[in-house]
Design a protein that fits this description.
- The chain has one domain: Roll (Ubiquitin Conjugating Enzyme).
- The mean pLDDT is 87.
- The protein contains four helices and four strands.
- 29% of the residues lie in helices and 19% in strands.
- The chain has 157 residues and is of the alpha+beta class.
- The chain is globular, with a radius of gyration of 16 Å.
- A four-stranded antiparallel sheet has the order 1-2-3-4, covered by helices on one side.
- This is UBC core domain-containing protein.
């Protein structure tokens, strides 16, 4: 049988992620919805909706996110993307890449998926204006963050 050349889904990694999803289904995080695991462009990808933290500029917002797991996961951390348009100093405006520097400095291969999702939620609760990922930080104000949340991150009716 000829090899199609298409990347094969990493079985052990997929099993680990499915187990983590089951744990989240059994004990869900109140700020995460609609989690789905897929295989896109040769990597496992977890997608879902992150609910903006109360008392933040993102309160009430529903933000689609994606976590892409490299073949080296769990030894290398996943990449985080906010798919919904968001005005945030730690999210790349063009690609939606979320910069979780605090998490990466303490990342451990045994870190549960629940912790990774909590850190992503914490990034919305506490943006770090001192370490922006873009040069357009002057445009990323708290007022603009609230405007964008109202414009782009409202739940579907």
């Amino acid at each position: 049988m000829a090899d199609s050349g298409a990347p094969k889904r990493p079985v052990r990694q997929t099993e680990k992620l499915l187990s983590a999803l089951q744990a989240l289904n059994d004990n869900p995080l109140p700020f995460v919805r609609d989690l789905q695991l897929g295989f896109v462009d040769g990597v496992n990808e977890l997608t879902g909706i992150l609910i903006g933290p109360n008392n933040s500029d993102y309160a009430g917002g529903h933000f689609r996110f994606s976590m892409r797991f490299p073949p080296q996961y769990p030894f290398n951390p996943p990449d985080f993307f906010i798919v919904t348009a968001i005005c945030h100093p730690n999210v790349n405006s063009r690609f939606g890449t979320a910069c979780l520097d605090a998490l990466w400095s303490t990342y451990d291969p045994h870190m549960p998926l629940k912790v990774l999702l909590t850190e992503l939620h914490n990034l919305l609760a506490e943006p770090n204006y001192d370490v922006p990922v873009d040069n357009d930080i002057l445009e990323k104000t708290r007022e603009k963050a609230r405007e964008w949340t109202q414009s782009f991150a409202q739940p579907l009716q």
